[in-house]
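Z., the sequence and structure:
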Amino acid sequence: MTATAPAPAPSPGTKADDERLVKTSPLRKLMGRPELGSVVGAVAVFLFFAIFADSFVRAASLSTVLYASSTIGIMAVPVALLMIGGEFDLSAGVMVTSSALISSMLSYQLTVNVWVGVLVSLVVTLGIGVFNGVMLTRTDPPSFIITLGTFLMLTGMNLGFTKLISGTVSTKSIADMQGFSSAKDVFASTFTIGGVDFKITILWWLALVVVATWILLRTRVGNWIYAVGGGEMAARAVGVPVNKTKIGLYMGVAFGAWISGQHLLFSFDVVQSGEGVGNELIYIIAAVIGGCLITGGYGSAVGAAVGALIFGMVSKGIVFAEWNPDWFKFFLGVMLLLATLLNHWVRKRAEVTK
């Protein structure tokens, strides 16, 4: 009897040894997407409120839902990128208010064109992001402690400076100042499609999603973000500029806060100094519902956008269904737990099918 010799093992470096050349089915690719769970959840929430609230599916109602989602999504997207990089920013909520206060008070007190205040606010807000990033990379405390300190400082400064300058807890109206109308067109205007009015924040939101997705999937910086979140020491070992990456991520959150702050200002003419407290948790919740892991290294900008959409649908769907709004936080908690469990199941299935 003649024995058949076993086939020789492929040598390292050949096509059979390169995982990148192994064909992957579309189903496996889909199961590996971090936003899959949130998309399923969004469809379920939409169908739920479409059944129990007749007015929910009207065009005007959907416009309201998209607006509510965009105000969260503008911040949820950069917060998601930061979480993918393995960090948090608890100052994100009050930073929005700080950005608006700087624009308003500077323009009013110096009697200058509103755009001067807007640009100065951009510089200062980005500076806060740099401060958070530098403090994190140059000291030992975790981002939770660093940004908690920034949160407390900004909260106190927002109230203290507002009362010191204006004598009240809100700013003076700048609606009649030069440059206000053009700035409102950029940050708080309304456009009409098919007879339905939409807020420009929806366009800002979509633009941020596109840019963030391009960064994550098509640039070297995106690889750095995932690497830093997956393991900082391993990322340093392969030459990833960890410190610069983290500082850049905090600046991204600051940029989102600047956009949101300007929208807040030019929507209402005045700003209340106590606004924004607690919103940082909403941004984090939207990112987690969208598939981001608390531990970092996993998630997507699209998922965070879908998480914000779920938040908007729940918050407005309860109103359209004429339910007691006191139950909103309960529904939000249920959505958070279900999304977390679903995302965990999706990741496990993705690992099994690899």
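Residues 48 and 218 are 36 Å apart (CA to CA). The radius of gyration is 23 Å.

Let me know what you think.
H.
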